[in-house]
Specification:
heterotrimer; A alpha/beta; B mainly alpha; C mainly alpha; A: Rossmann fold; five-stranded parallel β-sheet; B: two-stranded antiparallel ribbon
Chain lengths: 378, 292, 325
């Protein structure tokens, strides 16, 4: 009798001290160091901040979120090894990450084989073309950036342009896309220059462009310090026609570096950068303003669209988890694919079995830099 | 057309002057120890980043630059004392790997002490371009070229007119004989590292207003400076300067007239050809008879 | 020219035999402790790096030449087999074999003028060659996919697709043991002795009838072929390659592995590859301190073990054994 009571008591005590529910594990691999550090750094900060916030609010599905993040430093081989680690050793439920296209493409075979949902934060259209079952992405594709720029150029009557491209994957991939779609907008590319990693001076290339007859505008596909140097050199040799940059420079850092030379530069970017100046009727305003204020007050540094992609990725994942009700990977994947009318920092997401980017060009605003700040281009 | 040529030449000279300063750093350390200091590029980075952070903290530019160069010199001295000296007598290849480790360590420290963002220094005397023969020139370029010339002159005076300088030269010619003459090789090594670090940091401070600075700019600049040093003849001061300027000009003219996508290939092909025809580099320092 | 390292050690036939057996044993027994596919992946990467390092060690440690551009050969091997298989539809065993042969031929062609250079000029020439390869790969994006890289089909021999970590582990393990066996036999042969004589002094070696040019070229071509072979295997294993594999930093990494493990020792090359491939994986838990720690480990190890890991530990072991006698 006593023994049975003791047993019952022990069982009860055991049940009460049963471990808390398993956390939902979100794996991430980001380029926090290395050449793409200014992508990975805000991405990691964003993920950490919002997972903390979500956990403080009770988590998702009644469970806490656990972030397991590795620094792949822009290296595709490291990315592979880390994704294997996330899948095999850390047993994550889904993966958000891949700051660069190279790293993302390197892990695509792994996630397809392991059948785990993967939301990429990288830009190139090749990530989702052809559509892969388990791979989604949150940034606009580089082709969409080209299209947005060409629409603006066409509207101003610009038909002949020059390209100047940096050495990175983002740079070259965008250049290839722009060359591919230029004819659709009646744009002819008269000159095609490039610069290398760590280059300190692009006046030679820009001089050539200046001397090419008929050029009406220049498009710089690049990110990092290259575009800032290009911009300064551009003004130094007094090139009169407009300079367009890519969404790769969509951060205050670019304006700080290029200084006054950035005045008049146009680029496509998410509304995030001009959150305060958006009219209240703008459907994006609430989300972008909220993210901007929270990020800037927590980290005391300017918000960037790259962090915004991480925000979108995480929130879409959370939305999918909530709707799926379980962490079963196949169910979550289906839930991601059926996300409709989801407002992120980059725009409205409408995923579908044939569209794993989800954004259309309308989320991309054409911005112009005036007096050291972003404004919506007229 | 010729205005374009002037533009190419100016751009080539600017970047060439930076390569020359970095190459000088390589040459000085090599002369004292036969070690190729793979951390040389990091001194350039430290100079630029330290100056940028001092300026951002509110210090006036000249003071910030001075402190940055001084700080880098201390790092160079520390590198020699803590890493190179304990390994004296090790094979040269081992010492090179130590400097490789040092470059990784310094980059890691830089990303912790500062950050991974790109920083700029204000131009020393404004940004209004000057016109020269149809081309434009940044005032900063004049600073770069002027500082390089001044540095070279000072170094010439140092190596030829001061005892320490002559001691360093003696060690580079024949270490054993120098020791027999009572020269402390340890002190020479220390001074060499400090001097090279200061030169690298100076280059970093000079170039930062034009091409910015960040925690990882040292890799590429170190590589190009190394190439310039070898092109000029490893261990030769004038060779390093000639090599640096030549490399800068080849890159710029290659980008302008051949192909900007392949300008680095063009530059290295020329360096390779030059080495095959002039194996001891531009300055052609003949080695003493090879001992068996 | 002063040799860049201490003179190559004599090779008693028993020591290499023992180290080869030890390696074979380690390869055979390691799966017992590897818990999951991720650890298998690390082991496979170690093996592939080790194959390159054993070859590079023949060039640096034994023949006494320097190469700061070996990642270029690795990259050519990887991209050669990828391009032949993807753009021209070659079956993968053929693309692999053809690529290795082509890279060996290329190494022979550029080795002849380059190896006439000494010391730093040679270092610079190999460095330049590596960079030229890396830039061309990154720029010709229509063939190579550019800096974002390209996908590579898996290796398929006679209809059987080689896939999965376990299968690849055994393939790479066997190939590594074979490579080390080959290297050790080479070192013990007349050609190997000629290389070591070269390393000691080119002058003296040519005085006794050893033709430096021929032997340097042979070492260069062999090490290039091994690097290309490992590169091609890596491409088929990972299913994806990027130009970073041919970069200057990767070349430096390879040389560091060889020196770290101990030059003039094939086992040293393997140990160096193992140490420097697994170390970043272990240090990643320190997040932003990873680079600082990696640099510190490299520096401290080289300061306290200037001959490299294996020779230093070997001597310590021999001394301990001697004391206990």
């Amino acid at each position: 009798m006593l023994f049975r009571n003791l047993l019952a008591a022990a069982a009860l005590a055991f049940a009460c001290s049963a471990p808390a529910q398993e956390p939902i594990r979100i794996g991430a691999f980001l380029s926090v160091t290395g050449p793409a550090a200014f992508l990975g750094d805000p991405e990691q900060k964003t993920l950490e901040m919002y997972i903390e916030k979500l956990n403080a609010g009770g988590g998702v599905l009644g469970r806490k979120l656990q972030l397991i993040a590795y620094d792949s430093a822009g290296d595709a081989e490291k990315a592979r090894a880390f994704v294997k680690r996330l899948i095999e050793q850390d047993n994550v439920d889904l993966i958000v990450g891949g700051s660069t296209t190279g790293e993302t493409m390197a892990v695509v075979p792994l996630v397809e084989q392991a059948q785990i949902p993967f939301i990429s934060l990288a830009g190139a259209v090749v990530i989702v073309e052809p559509v892969r079952k388990w791979v989604f992405k949150t940034p606009h594709s580089d082709r969409q950036a080209c299209e947005r720029i060409f629409v603006d150029m066409k509207g101003r009557g610009t038909t002949k342009i020059a390209l100047i491209t940096g050495p990175g994957g983002f740079d070259k991939s965008m250049r290839a896309q722009c060359i591919g779609v230029a004819k659709n907008y009646g744009i002819e590319i008269l000159a095609d220059e490039s610069y290398g990693a760590g280059d300190t001076d692009m006046t030679a290339q820009l001089s050539k462009i200046k001397g090419t007859n008929g050029v009406q505008a220049v498009l710089n596909c690049g990110f990092g310090q290259g575009p800032a140097i290009v911009t300064k050199n551009y003004r130094q040799i007094s090139i009169g026609f407009p300079l367009y940059q890519s969404h790769g420079v969509a951060s205050k850092g670019y304006i700080q570096l290029a200084g006054g030379a950035a005045d008049g530069v146009r680029l496509p970017a998410a509304a995030l950068l001009v959150a305060e100046t958006l009219p209240d009727s703008d459907p994006q305003k609430k989300v972008v303003l909220g993210y901007k204020r929270e990020y800037e007050s927590r980290y005391k540094s300017d918000v960037s669209t790259f962090g915004g992609h991480a925000y979108d990725g995480l929130m879409i994942a959370v939305e999918a988890l909530t709707r799926a009700g379980v962490t079963d990977k196949a169910v979550v994947r289906d839930a991601i694919e059926s996300v409709r009318a989801f407002m992120g920092t980059a725009g409205v997401f409408n995923y579908s079995p044939t569209d794993h980017v989800g954004l259309d060009v309308s989320g991309f605003r054409m911005l112009e830099i005036r007096k050291g700040d972003w404004t919506l281009a007229k | 057309m010729s205005a374009q040529l002037v533009q190419f030449l100016l751009s080539g000279l600017t970047v060439g002057a930076i390569y020359a300063l970095v190459a000088l750093g390589f040459a000085i350390i090599y002369n004292a120890s036969h070690v190729i200091n793979f951390a040389q590029g990091e001194f350039v980075m430290i100079g630029g980043m330290a100056a940028a952070s001092f300026v951002e903290a509110g210090l006036p530019l000249p003071l910030a630059a001075l402190l940055a160069v001084g700080g880098a010199m201390l790092v160079g001295l520390a590198l020699e004392k803590l890493a190179v000296e304990p390994a004296r007598g090790a094979p040269v290849v081992t010492l090179i790997i130590i400097t490789i480790g040092a470059s990784i360590l310094l980059r890691g420290l830089a990303s912790l002490v500062w950050d991974k963002k790109i920083h700029a220094l204000p131009a020393f005397s404004g940004e209004t371009p000057l016109k020269l023969g149809g081309a434009t020139l940044l005032p900063q370029t004049l600073w770069v070229l002027g500082a390089t010339v001044l540095t070279v002159a000072l170094l010439w005076w140092f190596f030829n007119r001061t005892l320490t300088g002559k001691a360093i030269l003696a060690v580079s010619h024949n270490q054993l004989a120098a020791q027999l003459m009572g020269i402390s090789v340890r002190r020479v090594l220390l001074v060499s590292f400090g001097l090279s670090a200061a030169l690298g940091a100076l280059a970093g401070v000079l170039i930062a207003p034009i091409s910015f600075t960040s925690w990882d700019i040292g890799v590429m600049l170190g590589l190009k400076g190394f190439a310039a040093a070898i092109l000029g003849g490893m261990g030769s001061g004038p060779g390093a300067i000639a090599g640096g300027l030549a490399l800068g000009l080849i890159e710029s003219l290659g980008a302008g007239y051949v192909s900007s996508a392949y300008k680095d290939v063009f530059a290295f092909v020329i360096i390779l050809a030059a080495l095959i025809f002039l194996p001891d580099g531009l300055a052609g320092r003949r080695r003493a008879t090879e001992r068996v | 020219m002063a040799s860049p390292a201490a003179a190559a050690p004599p090779s008693a036939s028993s020591a290499p035999r023992r180290s080869l057996l030890a390696l074979a044993g380690a390869v055979a027994l390691l799966p017992l402790v590897l818990p999951n596919n991720y650890t298998y992946e690390v082991a496979i990467l170690v093996g592939l790096n080790a194959i390159v390092c054993v070859g590079l060690n023949l060039l640096i440690g034994y023949a006494g030449q320097i190469s700061l551009g070996h990642a270029g050969f690795f990259g050519l091997g990887a991209y050669g087999t990828a391009i032949l298989a993807v753009r021209y539809g070659w079956p993968t065993p053929a693309s692999l074999a053809a690529t290795v042969a082509a890279v060996a031929l290329l190494a022979w062609a550029i080795g002849r003028p380059i190896l006439r250079l000494r010391g730093h000029a040679l270092a610079m020439a190999t460095l330049g060659m590596g960079i030229i390869v890396a830039v061309v790969i990154a720029t010709e994006d229509r063939y190579t996919g550019g800096p974002d890289g390209m996908s590579v089909p898996p290796l398929a021999i006679a209809g059987h697709v080689l896939a999965g970590e376990r299968a690849w582990y055994w393939v790479v393990g066997v190939l590594l043991v074979a490579t080390v066996w080959l290297a050790q036999n080479l070192i013990d042969s007349p050609r190997g002795r000629a290389w070591r004589a070269l390393h000691g002094s080119e002058f003296a070696a040519s005085a006794i009838g050893i033709d430096p040019a021929r032997h340097k070229l042979a070492a260069f071509v062999l090490s290039a072929a091994l690097a290309a072979f490992a590169g091609a295997l890596t491409a088929h294993y990972a299913g994806f390659i990027t130009p970073a594999k041919a970069s200057f930093l990767h070349s430096i990494e390879l040389v560091t592995m060889v020196v770290f493990g101990g030059m003039a020792s094939s086992l040293g090359a393997v140990v160096g590859a193992a140490a420097l491939t697994t170390l970043p994986q272990l240090l990643t838990v320190f997040k932003e301190y990873e680079m600082v720690l990696l640099g510190a480990v490299l520096m401290l190890t080289m300061i306290f073990m200037p001959q490299g890991l294996v020779p230093t530990l070997g001597k310590a072991l021999a001394a301990a054994r001697g004391k206990s006698r």
